[in-house]
Amino acid sequence: MSATAGEVFPYPAGPGGTVPPQYARLLAEEPVSRVRLADGSAIWLVTRDADVRAVLTGPVFSRTRAAALPGTGLGRGQGTGIVDLDPPRHTVFRTPVAAAFSAERTARWRARIEEIAAHLAASLGDIPEPVDLVGSYTAPFAGRVVCELLGFDGDGWREITGDVETLLMSGGADGPEQEACRTRLAKAFTGLLQERRARDGDDVAGVLLGLDDPEAEGGKLTDEERVLLLHGLVISGFIGVRDLLARHLYGVLADPSVRDRLVRRPELIPGAVAELLRFYPSSNDGLLRMATEDVELSGVRIPAGAAVLPLVSAACRDPRVVDRPGELDVERPQTPTLAFGAGPHRCPATDLVMVQHAAGIGKLLATHPRIGLAVAPDEVAHTSQLLPLGVAALPVRLDTAP
């Protein structure tokens, strides 16, 4: 093993839910290193921006083969559908999803997304303090947005997202509760497709059905494949946005000077979102790939058949690409980062995520410009119970003026 002796990967997060401190040493000294997992197996870590891009974009690195590796964690044996596929099969599924979340379609959705955020921000004043922003703001915001964009009635977001989260939290366990969740979700997703065929609308289900263009990839999918995609989109659109937006709001509120700067200059918020995505990534590890042939990265030879983990969160702090990478600077000139990944598995909803986070932060600060944490920043519990990092709760007071 070339990494620090005695340490087992994944490493604990740093202060305030930031990336593990070991990443700085790896970036400087061992950009490609072999580490041990808790189950005794070994993988290769890749940390520098250029090397991570090579793994994410190179055809010699297979996600499908890595997903079939024995064990659990880091994407092994999780059966998550589209993210476990390699091109060309992956392209069949990704193309309609990318079309569904195009920049043009996202622009049409922007007003409704901002409306939802503004309504929820205003409703926080009706809740006794301290207010938990996770339960009262980021969860309903993410849930309603993803359900409406998929084509559901937004009022039913709790039922849809609750069943999806229950299945995720069960870790693959089977029982009456899990079976009931699967039955309800199957009914909801198939019902959505049937209902969507009978009406017009600007939503993701319509794109997956090929209603805009029957010859497009969406029109060639089976309903079973469409249900698989809808299920995955609820996971990323609800749990991913709920937890990541909560982390970003923590980053804004943990330092009142950051909050005040964004309140005074709301035009900074889109750039601040990009910086928050860099500084507070959705995960501190990632999904494994397998090298299908010998390959060299940063002068280190990785043999064919080796499991390789591209650490996007480390690459986002590569000093070769980012000046002062350990500082959160919401006025930082935007630099190309890997917050959304790269290559075939790059997030197809990048534009939507940026719009959602800008709306979620902007409307909250516009409605409550003196909002602040109700506890000390180091008392906020950060969690990685599910793949997206988050905070267990984010208690705030809506007016912290003296």
Describe the overall structure.
The chain is an alpha+beta fold and 402 residues long. Helix content is 47%, strand content 10%. It contains 15 helices and 13 strands. A 6-stranded mixed sheet has the order 1-2-3-9-6-4. Strands 5-13-10 form a 3-stranded antiparallel sheet. It has a two-stranded antiparallel ribbon with strand order 7-8. Helix 5 (103-123) packs parallel to helix 15 (350-367), helix 6 runs antiparallel to helix 11 and helix 11 (223-253) packs across helix 15 (350-367). The termini are far apart.
Helix and strand layout, with pairings?
Elements: E1 8-9, H1 22-29, E2 32-37, E3 42-46, H2 49-57, E4 61-62, H3 63-67, H4 89-100, H5 103-123, E5 131-132, H6 133-150, H7 157-169, H8 176-196, H9 204-208, H10 217-220, H11 223-253, H12 256-264, H13 269-279, E6 289-291, E7 295-297, E8 300-302, E9 307-310, H14 312-315, H15 350-367, E10 372-373, E11 382-383, E12 390-391, E13 395-397
Parallel strand pairs: 1-2, 3-9
Antiparallel strand pairs: 2-3, 4-6, 5-13, 6-9, 7-8, 10-13, 11-12
Question: Any descriptors?
Answer:
alpha+beta, 6-stranded mixed β-sheet, 3-stranded antiparallel β-sheet, 15 helices
A few lines on this structure:
The protein is built from 15 helices and 13 strands.
Looking at how many chains there are and whether they match, the oligomeric state comes to single chain
Helical content stands at 40-55%
* Residue-averaged pLDDT: 90
Radius of gyration: 21 Å
